[in-house]
Write a structure and sequence with these properties.
288 residues, 8-stranded mixed sheet, 8 strands, disordered C terminus, alpha/beta
Amino acid sequence: MRIDLHTHSTASDGTDSPAELVRNAAAAGLDVVALTDHDTARGHAEAIAALPEGLTLVTGAELSCRVDGVGLHMLAYLFDPDEPELARERELVRDDRVPRAQTMVRKLQELGVPVEWQQVARIAGGGSVGRPHIATALVELGVVETVSDAFTPEWLADGGRAYAQKHELDPFDAIRLVKAAGGVTVFAHPLAVKRGEVVPEAAIARLAAAGLDGIEVDHMDHDEPTRARLRGLAKELGLLATGSSDYHGSRKTVQLGDYTTDPEIYGEITRRATGAFPVPGAGGPRNA
């Protein structure tokens, strides 16, 4: 089985619609794909309706969190999307995304960048607006060459010149809320140092003690020594070790299925989940 447990659609900051994403996942030869848009489950219904036969969808979200002043992302799988407390927290984060993005646009303008809010809103296209949309605007304007080039201290990285904070969950609260909604939590790209400051391993141990289920090991932003280090940490802390593309469509170079999760790990995730269940596809041909 080929299993990719971290992807994004136009419901947040990907470039594929949810329907396009599942069709592209099937065409890429995946057996299982997780849709984990930022702080939203809005793309799930469309993905399920378009799910090709032979592909299984894991519903999820990537939750924005912060601990000890450091931002982190928590992948939440197979939770009940209607559980009110978790739904309310996701809404708070989403509602803060627009004013936060507008603040970053103003900061860029103050730095001499001719970016306009209308441009960023057009790029977001109704999705949960975030830094990748602003980064895409910088690419369009010729300020940077690639989206990744915008995530530096010079521009949009945590603490960068145009960075602005948003409402974020405490990760210990996130673990509690996701578990209460029957879901499973995995710390996304925990040592992606190119994105900025990372959470220390001692904090990961505290999260594990609080009920964290796993850490994302195989990821484009982890080099081989980092992956080996994370595998050892996962074993030491009794955490599941996953692998995922973190696919954003054309916004990143990584492709669906470039990094995958071991079927036994996937089986354990589904065994732990009680809020929702993987959805087997029967909606259309794999190469539609």
